[in-house]
C-alpha cells in the first residue's frame, strides 16, 4: 500500500516552474503548534493554499488559514545530500538510531547492522533491476539526485509508535509502507534478530535463513512492494500527488514484489506469476461483477474500501500482468501518459476510463473477455 495521509484540497491555479534561485520560508500554525518550512513552492492555489517541498523532499500541503508568514529569499534551493539526510534522520529519530548508506539509499535503523545491510543490498538489487526492466521496455528512468530513505525499526512496537501518526489504526495490520508525503519507506526488522533472545542470530547468513522460510514470503514481498513504490515515485515513472490510478501504482508494485526465497537476497525475479494474488483473483472470479474492469480503471474506490481492497489488489495485479504481456506497447504508452500527469490535477472517473480506452481499445467488454481467457491459462 501507500499512504496519502493528508487529503489535498487545494484549489488549483498555478503549477510553478522550478526556480533555481528562491527558497520559500513559510511559517504556519497546525493544531496549535508553530511549524516552519523552508523549501520550494510547487503549487500555489487560487485561495492562497500551498504545496511545498522541503529539502528532504517531504511534501507539505498548507491551507491558507494555517499560514502566518510567507517570505522568499534569493538563495538556491538545495536538496539534502546523503550526509545531511543522515544527520537529519538521526536527529529526528531520538534514540539509538544508526545509519547505513549505500549507493542510492540512506537507511536509518535501530536494529542490527546485519539486518540494515541485508535491506540495503536488497534495495540496491531492486534499484538496478527496476531500471533495466523499464529501459528494456523503452522507458529510461531518472537517476535521482537525492538519497532514498528507509527507516527500519527494531520491533513492531517502536515501528507502531512512529507510524501511528501517519497510519492511525491501520498500523496494526501494515508491516511496512511507503509514504507519498515523506517519500520514505518505513518498516521493522522482520526477523526479530535484534530481540534480546535472538541477539546471536544477526549474521547475514542467519537473516537469509530466517527470511527464506515459506512463511516469510509475504514479509519479503512487502519490503519489495514498498521499495518499488518509492522507486516509481523517485525515478520519473510516477509523480507524488499526481493522479496515478491505484490499479497501476499498486499493480506495478505487486508485479515486482514476487520474491524468490531460494535466492540469497530473497528476491531476483520480476514479473513472475504472483501465486498469492492469482489465488485471490481466482476466488474473486466466482462473484466478479460484469463491470469489474470498468470500476477498477475508473477510480480508486475499490482500493479505499477495506472490504473490497484485497480483490482490487488481486485484479490490479492480474490486469497489469495481462496487459504487460499481451499489450506491451500500449502498456508502455499508457505508463508514459501517467508519467506526465501534473501535480494535484485529478481526472474524473469518465476521464480515466476514456484514457484507458484510448490506450487499450474502446471495447471494454471485449478486452475483459480476452483478459479473463488469458488469466485462466496462467499457472
Ligand atoms: Zn502498495
Structure description:
This protein is globular. α2 crosses α5. The strands form two sheets. The protein has a six-stranded mixed beta sheet, with helices on both faces. Strands 2, 3, 4, 5, 6 and 7 form a six-stranded antiparallel beta sheet that branches. About 2% of the residues have low confidence. The chain is an alpha+beta fold. The chain folds into three domains: 75 residues, Roll (SH3 type barrels), CATH 2.30.30.520; 156 residues, Glutaredoxin; 103 residues, no CATH class. β5 and β6 form a beta hairpin. The protein has 13 helices and twelve strands. It binds zinc ion (ZN). The site of zinc ion has 6 residues, from α5 and α6.
List bound small molecules: zinc ion
Nearest-integer average pLDDT: 90
Q: What is the strand tally?
A: 12
Major β-sheet, in short? 6 strands, mixed
Q: Which topology of the largest domain does CATH recognise? A: Glutaredoxin
Question: Structural class of the secondary structure composition?
Answer: alpha+beta
Q: What top-tier CATH class of the largest domain fits best? A: Alpha Beta
Q: End-to-end distance, in Å?
A: 25 Å
Give the overall form: globular
Number of helices: 13
Low-confidence stretches: 4-9
Beta-strand percent range: 15-25%
Major beta sheet, strand line-up: 1-11-12-10-9-8
Please name the fourth-level CATH homologous superfamily of the largest domain: Collagenase ColT, N-terminal domain
- At CATH's second level, what is the architecture of the largest domain? 3-Layer(aba) Sandwich
Q: Domain count, please report it.
A: 3
Amino acid at each position: 500500500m501507500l499512504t496519502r495521509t493528508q487529503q489535498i484540497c487545494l484549489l488549483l491555479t498555478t503549477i510553478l516552474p522550478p526556480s533555481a534561485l528562491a527558497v520559500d520560508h513559510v511559517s504556519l500554525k497546525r493544531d496549535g503548534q508553530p511549524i516552519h518550512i523552508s523549501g520550494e513552492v510547487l503549487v500555489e492555489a487560487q485561495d492562497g493554499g500551498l504545496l511545498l517541498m522541503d529539502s528532504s523532499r517531504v511534501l507539505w500541503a498548507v491551507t491558507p488559514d494555517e499560514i502566518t508568514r510567507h517570505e522568499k529569499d534569493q538563495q538556491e534551493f538545495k536538496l539534502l545530500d546523503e550526509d545531511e539526510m543522515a544527520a537529519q534522520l538521526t536527529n529526528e529519530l531520538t534514540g539509538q538510531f544508526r545509519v547505513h548508506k549505500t549507493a542510492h539509499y540512506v537507511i536509518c535503523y535501530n536494529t542490527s547492522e546485519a539486518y540494515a545491510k541485508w535491506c540495503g543490498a536488497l534495495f540496491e538489487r531492486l534499484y538496478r533491476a527496476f531500471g533495466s526492466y523499464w529501459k528494456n521496455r523503452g522507458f529510461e528512468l531518472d537517476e535521482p539526485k537525492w538519497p532514498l530513505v528507509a527507516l527500519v525499526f527494531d520491533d513492531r512496537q517502536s515501528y507502531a509508535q512512529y507510524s501511528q501518526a501517519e497510519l492511525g489504526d491501520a498500523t496494526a495490520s501494515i508491516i511496512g509502507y511507503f509514504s507519498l508525503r515523506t517519500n520514505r519507506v518505513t518498516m521493522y526488522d522482520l526477523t526479530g534478530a535484534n530481540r534480546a533472545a535472538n541477539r546471536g542470530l544477526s549474521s547475514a547468513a542467519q537473516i537469509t535463513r530466517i527470511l527464506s522460510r515459506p512463511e516469510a514470503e509475504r514479509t519479503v514481498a512487502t519490503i519489495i512492494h514498498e521499495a518499488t513504490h518509492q522507486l516509481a515515485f523517485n525515478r520519473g515513472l510516477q509523480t507524488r500527488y499526481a493522479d496515478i490510478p491505484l490499479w497501476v501504482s499498486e499493480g506495478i508494485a505487486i508485479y515486482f514484489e514476487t520474491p524468490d526465497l531460494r535466492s540469497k537476497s530473497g528476491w531476483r525475479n520480476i514479473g513472475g506469476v504472483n501465486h498469492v494474488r492469482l489465488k485471490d483473483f481466482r476466488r474473486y472470479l466466482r462473484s466478479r461483477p460484469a463491470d469489474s474492469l470498468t470500476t477498477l480503471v475508473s477510480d480508486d474506490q475499490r482500493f479505499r474500501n477495506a472490504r473490497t481492497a484485497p480483490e482490487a489488489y488481486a485484479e490490479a495485479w492480474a490486469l497489469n500482468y495481462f496487459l504487460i504481456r499481451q499489450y506491451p506497447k500500449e502498456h508502455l504508452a499508457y505508463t508514459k501518459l501517467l508519467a506526465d500527469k501534473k501535480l494535484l490535477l485529478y481526472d474524473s472517473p469518465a476521464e480515466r476510463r476514456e484514457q484507458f480506452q484510448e490506450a487499450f481499445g474502446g471495447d471494454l467488454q471485449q478486452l475483459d473477455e480476452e483478459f479473463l481467457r488469458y488469466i485462466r491459462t496462467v499457472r
